[in-house]
Write a structure and sequence with these properties.
Pfam family, one: dTDP_sugar_isom
Active site: 80, 150
Strand content: 25-35%
Site (Participates in a stacking interaction with the thymidine ring of dTDP-4-oxo-6-deoxyglucose): 156
Family: Belongs to the dTDP-4-dehydrorhamnose 3,5-epimerase family.
CATH class: Mainly Beta
GO molecular function: dTDP-4-dehydrorhamnose 3,5-epimerase activity
Number of helices: 5
Oligomer: single chain
Number of domains: 1
């Protein structure tokens, strides 16, 4: 065998390729916690495993674009979503700093419509969150220069992108910071409330989302 190409035993491969995946209270969203392997050189982890995610989602995630944002402490980005189909599923992690990441169920007719869940993404536990198509996404930066990286299943299409005001009291996101410190873009503060978005017909439906997920599962 050539030097530099050691053959790994299957038990070692299994030990190195571990992630814990937990479904959140919003259907079709998941928290992913990787195993970390540290020594005096630093840390190694697998922050994305398509096969492990496929086991719980029901289909492979066809990634089309990768994004990175760097935010000042207190910055709020979202609530954002895209028309379904195809919308845009997201796999989000924070390689530097910390953010509180929210998934909001905006699918009209969903049993959890208007509800949300959150995951702390940081450079300590190095968790990720998976957010399926048709769900709303938002985060608040808890540290300076909080860096967030997203893997997404479709390229950005401004004509199909929408927003909901992240301060909508009907949704009631709990940011964990004094709102006087929050930094928001006019685009987000000018966005409609959840009720206004529903009345205007821009929200995805639970039925349309389930039908689209089924097409993806069938392709798998």
């Amino acid at each position: 065998m050539p030097r530099g190409s050691p053959q790994l035993s299957q038990p070692l491969i299994d030990r190195l390729s571990g992630v814990q995946i937990r479904e959140l209270s919003i259907p079709d969203s998941y928290e992913i916690t990787p195993k970390q392997f540290g020594d005096d050189r630093g840390v190694f982890l697998e922050w994305y495993r398509f096969d492990k995610l496929e086991e719980v989602v029901g289909h492979s995630i066809d990634l089309k674009q990768a994004n990175t944002s760097v935010s000042k402490r207190g910055s709020v980005r979202g609530i954002h979503f895209a028309d379904i189909p195809p919308s845009q599923a997201k796999y989000v992690t924070a390689p530097h700093g910390a953010v509180l990441d929210f998934v909001i169920d905006i699918r009209v007719g969903s049993p959890t419509f208007g509800q949300w869940d959150s995951v702390l993404l940081d450079d300590k536990d190095r968790r990720a969150i998976y957010i399926a198509e048709g769900l709303g996404h938002c985060f608040v930066a808890l540290t300076e220069n909080a860096t967030v990286s997203y893997l997404v299943t479709d390229t950005f299409n401004p004509g199909r992108e929408h927003g909901i005001n992240p301060l909508d009291p009907e949704i009631g996101l709990e940011f964990g910071i004094d709102l006087s410190e929050a930094l928001l873009s006019p685009k987000d503060t000018d966005a409609p409330s959840l009720a206004e978005a529903a009345a205007s017909g821009i929200l995805p439906s639970w039925e349309a989302a389930r039908a689209y997920y089924e097409t993806l599962n069938t392709k798998a």
